[in-house]
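Exercise 7.
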Amino acid sequence: MHTLIYMMQKRLGDLLTVFDQFAEAENAELFQQYLTYRQTQGLEFTPEQTSELLVAMAPLVGRFVARLFNVSEQHQSQKASITREIDSVFTYKNQVVEKLDVYFKGQSTDDWDKAGINRKMDVLLKVGFPESAQDSDAERRIATVGAEIGLLSAHYKLLAKGKPSSEQNADTRAEALRARLQQDAEAATEFVKLLDLLQPADFIASLMELVQRWSFLAAQQPEIANNWLSFKFPEKRDFEQLVKHDTISRGEYSVWMGEAEHRRRRDGFKLTDTRYQQREVLSEVNHCIYCHERDTDSCSKGMRNKKNNTFKVDPLGEITIGCPLEEKISEMHLVKRRGDNIGALAVVMIDNPMCPGTGHRICNECMKGCIYQKTDPVNIPEIETNVLTDVLFMPYGFEIYSFLTRWNPLNIKRPHMLPYNGKNVLVVGLGPAGYTMSHYLLNEGFAVVGIDGLKLEPLPLALTGDAEHLPEPIADFNTLYEDLDKRVLAGFGGVAEYGITVRWDKNFLKVIYLTLKRRAAF
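Solution. The predicted structure, written as tokens, is:
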């Protein structure tokens, strides 16, 4: 690993050539498009074409970097985990749950055989989907059933309308499900009439009705409706009351107080606002409609008036400029949805290489500019931070992030750091602006001296290295991670260190600090 770090620092240009060879071998046609994009600096590409190309190239970057750091197994494991969630929980949500109110509009369940519906659903799960029946996750157990039935149902409905369907082997899948039910005595008794339906389309339609009825009943059960993300939908947005609150009487006056369920008690200096878990993040990814495909990604580019191309102003008077960095947000979401965290991070870092200093609890101009204005917007900062942390906590995850700050073939303006050009720059103040400027100057070949009015605590030599010693590779990010109530303020980061509360994880400052300190010219 020491040799690898040395090679990365001294031979980044050579590594770009190696990547080109890898990419051409993987997909020659795509590589030629990318090469044209890089050689012309994107001038011949429309925004939609640029986005499509980056989304297609990101997985190649992801696989190349994973192989470089010998983490291909972990990289593929993350992809499998994400794909499993998307293919079950969120396919079920999209194909079944979100259509229930339309399908059962105005209907009462009073005369439904609720016990019979639950019994049939249990048998369908146990016999028709035996592997999923062993899943300890109750939501995913049901979602696996609902997703498969929902996809097959949609397939046959398209065919009935004379439209093409992308579903593969639908008849085979339907008949295999029928066979499993027929071969089990309990299932054959429970589904006796349904199994007699000769056409696969009729058979699946009957199963779909069962899944829909079970789901409609489940939506009325608080333990499911309030906790399963497959049943969570954006709420309407009230600009007059963006934060729900209670009004508390204090005798001569009243005060507003946030709802009890949303309060987080501060306990010393511990982190009070933990980040979303994977399914919560994927729920937000699923909420996105990937506007980059139509060049309407206002989260990134802002909302504009068609007549004069000025930015729109929302009901609160906020100018909807979108991300100030014009980060490729929608593209990142799509790459994440397809299971590639390294590729998604590379997309983020085209415009936002210092992304540990943004994301959750730092900025939300992207959310203000989200296409969803009348309902809850996509929680973009949570997704961005999740992409970063999913990489950081991989083996050698910190090294992967640090490497992508110096080498990123998706960034055609500066795909790799340039060697020292003999010019030196003084950066005064190492807050977000100062450390970001330092990064860009270093990548352009300048040497940088950074100073700050606050005392900057030194980092261990084993981590930073010096002229005589290479830094020790960080195999496990947990060795860098500190509980905030035990962490000593390092002084680095300016307002990010001293002006932000314990809602934000300040371990990200060490990521940036160490990344810069390892640069020989800093």
